C-alpha cells in the first residue's frame, strides 16, 4: 500500500519492558513537517504526534460588551450619585411627562455608573481548567521530572517515586474537582439555558416579531376556509357600579423598597442595562424618584415607552436551531391538580359504565396572537375601571422587540399582537382573554390551563352516535370562538381519545372518528396531557415506560461522572434532575399497577446506588435507610397524603377541596369519626382508583396527631418520620 511508518521509538515503557505499540502510517512523507513521541505521563502509553503541512482557516475572535465591576465600590457609587446627580434626580418631581422622567432617571444612573463600572469590549478567551490549581501544576512538574529521571537511570527506586507522585496527582485532581463542582452547585439558584455557537439571522427577528400577527391572520383564513362565522363587531361591555370596579392605586416608598430589595441578582437587565444589583445599591438615593415615576405612570394612565422595548433570546425547543419556528421560550409548570380533576372525571364515568371522549386541543402561538382590542374589552367586562383599561392600552401598544444571540442584537421591530413574554402580568392577561372560553361548550366540559385546553364528554355506549354529534358541535363552537378571538387551532396536532374500561372499549364500533375543521380525527391509543401520558384505560403503562426510560438515561449519564461529586452534591443533582421528574404529577398516576410501581422503584434503586457509590448487586433497603429516602410505594403515599392535607385544609383549588366532604358537615353528632371524611360511593374498582376515593381512605386512616398538624410543613415532617419509623420495624 506504499505506506510509511513514522514512529521509531518505544511508546510503552515500564520498569521491565520497552515496546513500540502506537504507530502512525502515512501515504506521503512530503506532507509531514515532523513527528515523534512525547515524553509525558498522561497514561502508560506515550502519546505520538504528527505535524502536517496543512493550512487551517482561523476563526475570527469573538468580542462581547460588558460592564467591568473590577474596581466597583457600592459605597463610592452611592456617594458620587447622591452628590453629582442631586439636581437631576430632583428635577423628576417637577416634570409632568412620565417618559421624560424615566429618561432622566436612566441617564442619571448610567452616567454615574459609567465612571465606576465602565463598559468595555473584551475578547472572549478559552478558560483554563478551573480545578487545576497551581499546587497541582507544581506536583505535575515534579511527577514529570521523576519520570524523566527514571528514563535516564532505570532505577527501581526512581520508578517507585514516580508512581507515588502520579497517584498523588490523581488524588489531588479528584479532590479539587469535587470541591470546584460543589462550589458551582452551591452558587446555582435557577436553571440557566446555555447557548452554543449561534448567530442572528434576519429571519429570526422577523419571525419573532411577526409570529403573533401571522397566527392571528391564519385563524381568520381558517375561518374563511371552513365557513366559520366570525363576529368582528366590538364586544359589548358589561357596565358595573363604580364601587365594584378594579382600579390601580398609587404605591408607597416602603412598598417600592420592599419589592426592589427582593429582586434576584441573577436576572439579565433590560435594554437600559441597569441591573438589580445597581438598583439595590443606590436604592436610598433613587427611592423617591422611582416611586414618583411609578405613581405618575398610574395617575397618567401611561406606561413608559422605554420599558416597552424588549430583548428576546430564542431557546431551541426541537429540531434545527437555524429554523426560526423551532426556537421559543419553554417553561415547565406543575399542574397536578387539574390533571387529577380530569382523570377523576373519567374514572367516575367508568364507574357508571360510561365512556369518555377526550379531545386535546393545540393552540398555536396563543400568547403571541392575542388581539389587543378584544383584550381591552374583556378587561372592562371583568371589572377594570376605564382608567385601568387606559393604562393597559398604553402598556400593550407601541411595543418593540429585538432578538439577542450572544453579543449580537438585531434592529427593533414593532409588536402588534400578544402579551409580553416573561412579564409578570402576561399570564393574568392571557387567563382573562380565555376567561369565557369554557362557557362556549354546551354538551361537553372544557378545561384550560394557560394555552392547553381539552374537551371531555362522558356518555353511555348506547348513545355513542348522539355523543359524537354533540362533541363535533361543541368543537365547532370552540373553533368559532378561537377564530373570533384570533387564536389559531392546529387540527393536525389536536389529539382525540376514547377512554373506558376494557369491557366497554371492546364493545366500541369500528369507526368512532370525528370531524374537526375539515379533518377526520381517529382515536389514538395514548396522548400526553400536561406532562402525563394518558392511555385508553388510564392504567399509565406507557407513562411509566417512558418515565423509566428517560430517568434511567439521565442516571446513566450521572453515573459516568459520579466520582466528580461529593455525596451531598450528587444527591442534590439526582434530586433535581431525576427524582423531581420521577414524582411529577405522581398523585395522578399513583393508582397504577404494582408492577408499574416496581418499575419506578428501579429508578430509585439505581439513583440510591449512585449516591452511595455502591456496587450493582448490593441490597438497596439499607442504602435507602441510610439516605432517609422513602421507598417508591411509600413516597407515592406520602405525596397523596400531603395533597389530601391541602384539600382538607382548603390549601388546594376549590374544585378538589369541594370533593372531600367532612362528616361533621353532614351531622352534628360528636363521634370517633367526627373528623373523618365521607366515603364516596363507587361500585367498581375503576371508581375506587380515583383520587377522591383514595384521599378519603388515606385521611380516615391517619393518626389523629397527624390530622391535627397546624401547617403543611409540620404535617410533611411528621408523616415522613412516621413512615420511616414504620419502614424500619
UniProtKB/TrEMBL annotation:
Pfam families given in the database record: RVT_1 (PF00078)
Protein name listed in UniProt: Uncharacterized protein
PANTHER family: REVERSE TRANSCRIPTASE DOMAIN-CONTAINING PROTEIN (PTHR33332)
Organism: Paramuricea clavata (Red gorgonian)
Cited PROSITE patterns: RT_POL
Entries under InterPro entries matching the protein: DNA/RNA_pol_sf, Endo/exonu/phosph_ase_sf, RT_dom
SUPFAM superfamilies in the cross-refs: DNA/RNA polymerases (SSF56672), DNase I-like (SSF56219)
Amino acid at each position: 500500500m506504499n505506506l510509511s511508518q513514522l514512529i521509531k521509538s518505544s511508546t510503552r515503557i515500564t520498569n521491565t519492558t520497552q515496546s513500540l505499540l502506537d504507530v502512525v502510517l502515512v501515504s506521503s512523507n512530503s506532507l509531514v513537517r515532523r513527528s515523534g513521541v512525547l515524553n509525558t505521563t498522561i497514561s502508560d502509553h506515550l502519546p505520538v504526534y504528527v505535524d502536517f503541512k496543512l493550512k487551517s482557516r482561523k476563526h475570527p475572535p469573538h468580542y462581547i460588551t460588558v460592564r467591568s465591576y473590577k474596581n466597583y465600590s457600592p459605597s463610592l457609587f452611592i456617594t458620587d450619585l447622591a452628590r453629582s446627580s442631586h439636581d437631576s434626580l430632583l428635577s423628576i418631581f417637577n416634570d409632568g411627562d412620565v417618559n421624560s422622567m424615566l429618561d432622566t432617571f436612566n441617564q442619571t444612573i448610567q452616567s454615574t455608573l459609567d465612571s465606576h463600572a465602565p463598559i468595555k469590549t473584551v475578547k472572549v478567551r478559552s478558560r483554563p481548567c478551573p480545578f487545576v490549581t497551581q499546587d497541582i501544576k507544581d506536583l505535575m512538574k515534579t511527577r514529570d521530572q521523576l519520570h524523566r529521571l527514571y528514563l535516564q537511570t532505570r532505577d527501581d527506586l526512581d520508578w517507585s517515586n514516580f508512581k507515588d507522585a502520579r497517584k498523588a496527582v490523581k488524588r489531588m485532581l479528584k479532590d479539587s474537582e469535587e470541591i470546584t463542582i460543589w462550589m458551582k452547585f452551591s452558587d446555582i439558584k435557577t436553571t440557566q439555558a446555555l447557548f452554543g455557537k449561534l448567530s442572528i439571522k434576519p429571519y429570526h427577528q422577523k419571525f419573532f416579531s411577526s409570529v403573533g400577527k401571522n397566527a392571528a391572520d391564519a385563524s381568520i383564513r381558517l375561518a374563511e376556509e371552513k365557513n366559520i362565522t366570525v363576529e368582528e363587531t366590538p364586544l359589548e361591555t358589561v357596565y358595573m357600579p363604580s364601587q365594584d370596579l378594579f382600579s390601580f392605586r398609587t404605591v408607597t416608598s416602603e412598598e417600592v423598597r420592599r419589592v426592589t430589595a427582593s429582586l434576584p441578582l441573577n436576572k439579565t437587565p433590560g435594554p437600559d442595562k441597569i441591573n438589580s444589583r445597581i438598583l439595590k445599591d443606590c436604592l436610598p438615593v433613587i427611592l423617591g424618584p422611582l416611586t414618583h415615576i411609578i405613581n405618575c405612570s398610574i395617575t397618567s394612565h401611561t406606561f413608559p415607552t422605554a420599558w416597552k422595548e424588549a430583548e428576546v433570546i430564542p431557546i431551541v425547543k426541537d429540531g434545527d436551531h437555524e429554523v426560526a419556528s423551532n426556537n421559543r421560550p419553554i417553561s415547565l409548570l406543575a399542574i397536578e391538580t387539574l390533571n387529577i380533576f380530569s382523570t377523576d372525571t373519567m374514572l367516575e364515568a367508568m364507574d357508571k359504565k360510561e365512556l369518555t371522549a377526550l379531545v386535546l386541543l393545540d393552540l398555536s402561538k396563543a400568547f403571541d396572537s392575542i388581539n389587543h382590542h378584544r383584550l381591552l374589552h374583556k378587561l372592562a367586562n371583568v371589572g377594570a375601571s376605564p382608567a385601568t383599561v387606559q393604562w393597559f392600552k398604553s402598556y400593550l401598544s407601541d411595543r418593540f422587540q429585538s432578538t439577542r444571540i450572544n453579543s449580537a442584537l438585531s434592529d427593533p421591530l414593532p409588536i402588534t399582537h400578544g402579551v409580553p413574554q416573561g412579564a409578570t402580568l402576561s399570564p393574568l392577561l392571557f387567563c382573562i382573554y380565555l376567561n369565557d372560553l369554557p362557557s362556549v361548550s354546551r354538551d361537553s366540559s372544557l378545561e384550560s390551563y394557560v394555552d392547553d385546553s381539552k374537551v371531555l364528554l362522558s356518555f353511555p355506549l348506547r348513545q355513542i352516535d348522539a355523543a359524537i354529534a354533540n362533541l363535533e358541535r361543541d368543537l365547532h363552537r370552540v373553533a368559532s370562538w378561537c377564530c373570533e378571538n384570533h387564536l389559531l387551532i392546529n387540527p393536525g396536532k389536536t389529539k382525540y381519545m376514547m377512554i373506558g374500561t376494557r369491557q366497554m372499549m371492546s364493545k366500541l364500533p369500528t369507526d368512532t372518528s370525528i370531524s374537526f375543521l375539515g379533518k377526520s380525527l381517529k382515536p389514538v391509543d395514548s396522548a400526553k396531557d400536561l406532562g402525563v401520558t394518558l392511555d385508553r384505560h388510564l392504567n399509565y403503562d406507557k407513562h411509566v415506560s417512558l418515565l423509566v426510560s428517560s430517568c434511567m438515561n439521565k442516571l446513566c449519564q450521572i453515573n459516568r461522572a459520579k466520582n466528580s461529586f461529593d455525596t451531598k452534591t450528587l444527591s442534590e443533582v439526582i434530586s433535581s434532575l431525576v427524582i423531581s421528574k420521577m414524582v411529577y404529577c405522581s398523585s395522578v398516576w399513583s393508582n397504577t399497577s404494582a408492577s408499574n410501581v416496581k418499575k419506578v422503584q428501579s429508578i430509585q434503586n439505581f439513583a440510591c446506588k449512585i449516591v452511595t457509590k455502591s456496587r450493582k448487586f448490593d441490597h438497596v433497603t439499607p442504602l435507602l435507610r441510610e439516605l432517609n429516602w422513602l421507598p417508591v410505594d411509600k413516597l407515592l403515599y406520602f405525596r397523596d397524603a400531603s395533597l389530601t392535607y391541602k384539600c382538607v385544609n382548603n390549601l388546594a383549588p376549590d374544585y378538589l377541596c369541594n370533593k372531600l366532604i367532612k362528616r361533621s358537615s353532614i351531622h352534628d353528632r360528636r363521634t370517633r369519626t367526627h373528623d373523618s371524611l365521607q366515603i364516596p360511593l363507587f361500585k367498581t374498582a375503576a371508581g375506587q382508583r380515583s383520587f377522591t376515593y383514595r384521599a378519603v381512605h388515606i385521611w380516615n386512616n391517619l393518626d389523629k396527631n397527624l390530622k391535627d398538624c397546624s401547617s403543611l410543613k409540620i404535617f410533611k415532617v411528621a408523616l415522613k418520620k412516621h413512615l420511616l419509623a414504620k419502614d424500619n420495624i
